[in-house]
Amino acid sequence: MTTIINLARARKARAKAEAQAQAAQNRAAHGRTKAEKDAAAKAKARVEALLDGARRED
Fold first, then answer.
1. Considering only CA atoms, which of 41, 22, 23 is closest in space to residue 33?
2. How many angstroms separate the CA atoms of 38 and 50, rounded?
3. What Rg value do the Cα atoms of the chain yield, rounded?
4. 2 DSSP assignment
5. Does the pLDDT value for residue 56 go beyond 90?
6. What are the CA-CA distances from residue 6 to residues 9, 15, 17, 38, 51 (Å)?
7. CA–CA distance from 52 to each of 43, 46, 58 (Å)?
8. What's the mean per-residue pLDDT of the chain?
9. Distance (Å, rounded) from C-alpha 51 to C-alpha 7?
10. Measured in Å, how far apart are the chain's first and last C-alpha atoms?
11. DSSP 8-class letter at 5
C-alpha cells in the first residue's frame, strides 16, 4: 500500500531544501577574506592566460 503524501508539505520541504542549498553556495562565495578572493582571481587569470596562449590561430 502506498503512503499518503501532503503535497503542500512536500512542496514546502523542497523549497526549504533549495533555499538551504542556495544559502550554502552564498556562504561559500561571499564568506571569504579579501586575500582568498584575490588569490582565486589570480589563479583564474593564470588559467585563462595559459589557455589563450595555447589557442591556435585559424
1. 41
2. 18
3. 22
4. P
5. no
6. 5, 14, 17, 48, 52
7. 14, 10, 14
8. 91
9. 49
10. 64
11. -
For residue 36, the Cα-to-chain-centroid distance in whole angstroms is: 16
**pLDDT tens digit sequence for 12-39:** 999 999 999 999 999 988 888 999 989 9
> Residue 17 and residue 23: Cα distance in Å, rounded?
10
Size of the chain, expressed as the number of residues it contains: 58
For residue 13, the number of C-alpha atoms closer than 13 Å in the C-beta half-sphere is 6
Q: Which amino acid is at 12?
A: K
Spatial neighbors of 32 by CB under 8 A, at least 6 apart, are: 40
Q: Would the CA dihedral through 4, 7, 12, 13 be positive or negative?
A: positive
